[in-house]
Amino acid sequence: MEADIAGPQRKVKVSWVRPAKAGDGLEGITIRDGVSLPFVVHREWLAPAGNYQEQWFLIDPDSREVVYEGATRLRFILGLQALTECEDTIDVPLALAPGRYQIVFALGGLQGGELDVEVTEAPAEAA
Q1: Is residue 79 part of a domain?
Q2: What residues make up the domain containing 44?
Q3: CA distance linking residue 115 with residue 12, whole number of Å
Q4: In total, how many domains does the chain have?
Q5: Rounded to an integer, what distance in angstroms lies between the CA atom of residue 86 and that of residue 81?
Q6: Of all helices (H) and strands (E), which one includes residue 67?
Q7: For 80, how many CA atoms within 13 A lie in the half-sphere containing its CB?
Q8: Is 104 helix (H, G, I), strand (E, B) or coil?
Q9: Residue-wise pLDDT tens for the chain (127 aa)?
Q10: Cα dist. 29→6, 81, 122, 127 in Å?
Q11: Residue 2, domain member (yes or no)
């Protein structure tokens, strides 16, 4: 068996998005009155060891419009023998409609993965 060494070898191997509060749902992004509630974006990179600029983008898959740009951060990637975990909590309310969106992950200016995300209405608040 040959190793897969073609390309830049920057890949997101594990990723998920969930509300920051468990009571707001278990996965995806929840909204209330058309704006997002706080949510967590988690990803685990596999790439050659080193420092990279890392960023992610929330995209409307129909228009390909970037709805939100995650902060650009300098990340130290552990290397090809271990996954490097990155996580952001987004507290800024984003105007979103229910439906399917996509998150695109970039490391060192190259796309390393994407994730489909469902935006849904949050469960009703308890009185």
Answers
A1: yes
A2: 11-53+69-121
A3: 10
A4: 1
A5: 16
A6: strand 66-69
A7: 7
A8: strand
A9: 344 555 578 999 999 999 999 888 899 999 999 999 999 999 999 999 999 999 999 999 899 999 999 999 999 999 999 999 999 999 999 999 999 999 999 999 999 999 999 999 988 764 4
A10: 34, 31, 9, 22
A11: no
Measured distance CA(13)–CA(119) in Å, rounded: 22
- Whether the predicted model's global pTM rises above the 0.70 cut: yes
At 51, which amino acid appears? N
For residue 67, give the amino acid letter.
Answer: V
What pLDDT sits at residue 126?
46
Is the Cα torsion angle 89, 107, 58, 27 positive or negative in sign?
negative
* Tally of residues, the chain: 127
Q: Does residue 63 lie within any of the structural domains?
A: no
Q: Which residue has the tokens 């390909």?
A: 64
Q: Establish if 107 belongs to a structural domain.
A: yes
